Amino acid sequence: MTEIKAKKVVKQLLDAGFYDSRINGDHHRFKDDEGHYVTVNYSRLSDSIKPGTYSAILRQAGLKKNRE
After folding, report:
1. Taking the complete model, does pTM exceed 0.90, yes or no?
2. I want to staple 7 with a disulfide (CB 3.0 to 4.6 A). Which of 35, 45, 53, 58 is the partner?
């Protein structure tokens, strides 16, 4: 899997009902009404996110099931 652009990650979160609740430096914190919190680290939407980080973001957002 190649690196994913921050723009794609943010779009997936927004489409899933998340909103940008706060920003501290390059750390953008998204949350939804179900209590999920996800922090995405980027300074520009063109920044790359590594595959492991992307997988963790999806898992924290409840968009990916954990392996059992």
Report:
1. no
2. 45
